[in-house]
Amino acid sequence: MLKKVTSVLIVFVFCLCFIPMPAVHVNADTRNSNTPTVGTASADPDFAAGIYNTGSTGSGGGVSAMAVGLIGSVSLALYHDGGNTIRLEARTIGTEVLNKIGFQDIKLQRWQNSQWVNVKVWSTYRYNSATYAYESITNVTPGYDYRYTAVHYAEKDWLIFPSVQTFYNETSYLYIG
Hints:
Radius of gyration: 26 Å
Number of strands: 7
Number of domains: 1
Shape: elongated
């Protein structure tokens, strides 16, 4: 009797091995099914560099007719300082002392509902300077991907007509969980 029960049990287990099972899809990104489709993910979970950081921008960005090389280099970086805290570090370096240098439309953005949504927008400038290094620390809502965008800005007055050069930059994005 024990042999028959054992035989039936073995046949049953053997049959289970050949029953097709439904495929189970495991999402590689288990943190959030709403992963950004626009932008670049950072390879480092705590640091995202500016995509368009430069050593020398030349005349990139928007340039007025008289502006020639006002911006020498730009950088933008996003750091995850732990918990829900992120830090922006930005720098615009001019090629000479400028009347106005800094950042137009700094945007802290989070990926929400399949688009980048502005969480905070501001501008900041320094006057009569050749460089502007800026830092901002912000607490964010966890569970989203975040990035910064900014327009590096330089202005030199030439008598009546100011020369203006701008240069767009954005960081890759980080998930803040």
